[in-house]
């Protein structure tokens, strides 16, 4: 492999691509669904809220609505089987379902811990388990996992969210090493602060905040470049990556100063 060659096959022509988007009803997922449909992709929209999915489908020509809850056993497999019967295969599965609740260490409870991990981590891992065997059998396909820059290092207010996203980053790296040699694409997506209903809960300044539409544009550009990790906005994410190179005695006070928490 050439040193600077794309780590995944670039996706530049979306016409006819069969894309299952899990976590599509609001925010980044909804914006991305509109971009994909506008590019000619055949899009299946999944999330828990049927009304919001129906409203989104009206903006995405030919979209298939498949409401489901990733935390309920058998739901991913049920929708997968429906789409395979309808389409005959899946070219790209985007696992974007997630939740966020600002939490400090003293606010942790078993219920809050499990709610976050069941959706953000186990729901994604179950999604991969549902689709990878079929992709390997067909010898083609790609998976995209939406994590977060909150997974790069510990941050205040992210006692459950940050660890769940850190696990997704590790999981995506492992998937790439296992699946890329067998012909499958693996894409890791790490957004910074994006204006969505989830981040609207934050009561602190969010640096380099961008819109969901801008985030979708960045993700589409990452697919076109064949990137393994698409992170944005770069002016913010590169700074966070740099912080991880610092000794912890410098990292902790810098984060406290930057967040005010």
UniProtKB/TrEMBL annotation:
<protein>
    <submittedName>
        <fullName>Short-chain dehydrogenase</fullName>
    </submittedName>
</protein>
<dbReference type="GO" id="GO:0016491">
    <property type="term" value="F:oxidoreductase activity"/>
</dbReference>
<comment type="similarity">
    <text>Belongs to the short-chain dehydrogenases/reductases (SDR) family.</text>
</comment>
<dbReference type="Pfam" id="PF00106">
    <property type="entry name" value="adh_short"/>
</dbReference>
<dbReference type="InterPro" id="IPR002347">
    <property type="entry name" value="SDR_fam"/>
</dbReference>
<dbReference type="InterPro" id="IPR036291">
    <property type="entry name" value="NAD(P)-bd_dom_sf"/>
</dbReference>
<keyword id="KW-0560">Oxidoreductase</keyword>
<dbReference type="GO" id="GO:0016020">
    <property type="term" value="C:membrane"/>
</dbReference>
């Amino acid at each position: 492999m050439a040193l600077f060659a794309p780590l995944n096959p670039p996706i530049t022509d979306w016409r006819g691509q069969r894309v299952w988007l899990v976590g599509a009803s609001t925010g980044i997922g909804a914006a991305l669904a509109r971009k994909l449909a506008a590019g000619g992709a055949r899009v299946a929209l999944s999330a828990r809220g049927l009304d919001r999915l129906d409203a989104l489908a009206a903006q995405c020509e030919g979209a298939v609505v498949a409401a489901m809850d990733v935390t309920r056993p058998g739901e991913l497999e049920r929708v997968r089987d429906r789409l395979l019967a309808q389409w005959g295969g899946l070219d790209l599965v985007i696992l974007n379902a997630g939740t966020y609740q600002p939490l400090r260490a003293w606010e942790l409870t078993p219920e809050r811990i499990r709610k976050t991990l069941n959706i953000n981590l186990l729901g994604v891992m179950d999604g991969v388990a549902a689709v990878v065997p079929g992709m390997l059998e067909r010898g083609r396909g790609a998976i995209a996992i939406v994590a977060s820059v909150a997974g790069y290092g510990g941050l205040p207010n992210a006692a459950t969210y940050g660890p769940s996203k850190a696990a997704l980053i590790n999981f995506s790296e492992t998937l790439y090493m296992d699946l890329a040699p067998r012909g499958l694409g693996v894409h890791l997506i790490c957004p910074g602060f994006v204006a969505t209903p989830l981040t609207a809960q934050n009561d602190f300044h969010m640096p380099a905040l961008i819109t969901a539409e801008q985030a979708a544009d960045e993700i589409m550009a990452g697919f076109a470049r064949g990137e393994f990790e698409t992170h944005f906005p770069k002016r913010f994410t590169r700074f966070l990556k740099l912080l991880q190179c610092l000794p912890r005695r410098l990292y902790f006070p810098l984060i406290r100063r930057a967040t005010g928490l």
